[in-house]
């Protein structure tokens, strides 16, 4: 699919990190972009910085997602590209023994469920709305639209404490081919990026020494990924009409260790 001024795109989680880098890359290529994000302050700032529009969106809510898509389409037309970057996680052991008291604690079910709802269900919620909208369009060069999802290296090599996050991101990988098959007759492609360790605002709490150590874990190049490298992959998945139903690792060949 050609990326130019005729393309309308939506990026969830587009106010920071991988999402913001993707917004910038799409805008640099000429596309119209709507940033879906929960935080109005960072969302409006990102929109002003990139010449995009901001639509407040809580991916945990049907109503919020529907309202965001309605606003985006009213201002820039029906999107033909959706890049899902919204997500998050926690770090809680499945069951652990308190070193001081010996008390045994378990992973709270509601916190496990929240991570799946945010990442997996939130991504799927946006996919369904975007796909339905794309189905109203006439095909361009045989296709109506493209969906790009974000998984994680944790989907296959989750570290200790990442049971919920690993499950949520593995589910995104697992549903990619199925959704691509569901939408194949409509000319809508679906792909997923599985990033390793990237230098994003989520890493801001890490010390320089910790960041250096993390980078040294990557076989080559021995560094953290750059957000614009993620954006480059997302744009290639949009442009390349033969990339469909696949998950691409973007991680410098790292395989995560237990901790």
CATH class identity: Alpha Beta
Structural class: alpha/beta
**H-E order:** EHEHEHEEEHEHHEHHE
Sheet with most strands: strand arrangement = 3-2-1-4-7-8-9
Task: Please name the fourth-level CATH homologous superfamily.
Answer: NAD(P)-binding Rossmann-like Domain
Bulk shape: globular
- Which spans of ≥5 residues are poorly predicted at pLDDT below 50? none
Number of helices: 8
Q: How many domains?
A: 1
Radius of gyration: 18 Å
The rounded distance between the terminal residues' Cα atoms is: 40 Å
What portion of residues belong to β-strands? 15-25%
CATH architecture field: 3-Layer(aba) Sandwich
**Oligomeric state of the chains present here:** single chain
Organism: Steroidobacter agaridevorans
GO molecular function, one term: oxidoreductase activity
Keywords: Oxidoreductase
Protein name: 3-hydroxyacyl-CoA dehydrogenase
Textual characterization of the structure:
This protein is an alpha/beta fold. The protein has one domain: NAD(P)-binding Rossmann-like Domain (Rossmann fold). It is built from 8 helices and 9 strands. It has helices spanning 17-28, 40-50, 62-76, 109-134, 154-157, 163-183, 208-216, 227-239; strands spanning 8-12, 32-37, 53-56, 81-84, 95-97, 104-106, 145-150, 188-195, 247-250. The strands form 2 sheets. Strands 3-2-1-4-7-8-9 form a 7-stranded parallel sheet, sandwiched between helices. A two-stranded antiparallel ribbon has the order 5-6. Helix 3 packs parallel to helix 4 and helix 4 runs parallel beside helix 6.
